[in-house]
Amino acid sequence: TPDLDLAAIRQDFPLLADRPDGTRAIYLDSAATSQRPRAVIDAEVDFLRTANAAVHRGAHTLAAEATEFFEDARATVAGFVGADPDQLVWTSGATAGLNLVAYAIGNATAGRGLPASARFALQPGDELVVTETEHHANLLPWQELAARTGAVLRHIAVHDDGTLDLESAASVIGPRTRVVAFPHVSNVLGIVNPVVALVEMARDAEALTVLDACQSAPHLPLDLPTLDVDLAVFSGHKMLGPYAIGGLYGRADVLADLPPFLVGGSMITRVGLGESEYLPPPQRFEAGTQPVSQAIGLAAAVRYLDGIGMGAVHAHEVRLERRMREGLRSLPGIRLLGDAEGADRVALCAFEVEGVHAHDAGQFLDARGISVRVGHHCAQPLHRRFGMTATVRASAAVYNTDDEIDELLNAVSGIRGFFGAGA
Ligand code: PMP
Q1: How far is the CA of 275 from the centre of ligand 1 (A)?
Q2: Domain Aminotransferase class V: where (predicted)?
């Protein structure tokens, strides 16, 4: 691959080196969690060893230094998605970010928070829209919000080939729609969704847009202001960063009017025994002690990705994806989920092996040193839509090689024979 130095990149990931017993992990489960380069591990540890202190609190030198590291990290990660620092709220992950938004809207509905937050208040019969392809993290918070407020949850259908049904979107999104939440890339289909078209429909309906960017942020250049979504979430541990850190991005005017979800220390201007006043964003949404070393680790992760260049990352992964998909298509008895021709994708394939349970297939691959995910991948409605309960999912990242894809294909070609399922 001309665009990036893959050998050098692999050297940066301790876990991808030969292990003490001489085996080597063929890691194809990055959609679940990515591996971390040494730069990320070191950044977190270095901070803890040399600069750790309570941020935004102490007046002492160390606290001031720690605060500077923490806020620099915010600026770096915000810049990675094209945003200003104040548009980035730290969360413990995408699940936390989506729950924050749904609960904040619930608080607005209950008349809590700020006067301006009335713009988010829901009336019984108002509609929340998601897609049939949702990760449970972008479905259950909306189900709960609907149950609490009397709003109605509706969904956009998906075509047999895995692309979103835009006619369904046009018929579902209407005058009563208040929120349209959808994934940039589904963690099962791997197809890049038409964000601009969906945002346009939502704008026409004056609905708030919420983008789940977990599976796009690690794999393609992402400029959230250009996509024009109101809110978006992404997850550190899927983009070479630490666990327990994520980002919630918001348009400045949306964050400014959104009431808080969690309340407590570090998010207030004045507290009385009866009532209190809150800080503006992002601090309004960051009650309590924050994941400081993780934020610094995530900044190192996006600096690492930017060092390679997201264009080069994407180009490399597109090549891996084609190799994997074309290889799997050519194997008998393999049924790919959402196998649309010519779709924009990330390097992720979910498939069924005819006559073999996904868990057996996963164990067969694991015995050959290949790590994939099996199950419903937190997307039960989507699997049900395709008449399946479980699939095998192979997902690549910047550090994977053609050889690893070939080893996957070679191993998959032996599954049915091994289990006596067809020729
Ligand atoms: N949305 C999608 C599309 C995901 O793939 C995941 C992670 N499996 C999540 C949300 C949840 O992210 P987190 O682990 O940061 O809570």
Answers
A1: 35
A2: 26-408
